[in-house]
Amino acid sequence: MNDQYAEIKAELELTRKELRQRLSSTTDMEASYEMLFENPINEKEKMVLHHIKEDLQDVERALGKLKYGSYGICEETGKHIPVDKLKIIPTARTLYDFSFSDLFEKRQFSSSIHSTNSTKVSAQ
User: Fold this and answer.
1) What domains, with CATH codes, occur in the chain?
2) Taking a C-beta distance cutoff of 8 angstroms, is the pair 33, 39 a contact?
3) If you average pLDDT over every residue of the chain, what do you get?
4) Average pLDDT over residues 60-79
């Protein structure tokens, strides 16, 4: 494993631990609730449980890629994903996983330029 990924690996391992704890407590609660009230869990709780499982799968996939040396390589293009991007979204699988955040950053940047320019114009 590359040393530049050590921090990311530690973050992923911590996230895996937290997700497993949430999954365990959620399924324990679900089982006791059903036994006490004989009602299935509601749709919101099912969705939460589903998202926890999905997140855990993403983390496990990223840790597996770290183990086998394919972490940080875009699954669609084969290009390396920049480490600074992976620190933001450590479970990213493609370069396109950052499209929204890139768009947001561009908007933030253009907004700050626009507000700076309008301040200069109004100051004249």
Assistant:
1) 3-94 (1.20.120.910)
2) yes
3) 80
4) 96
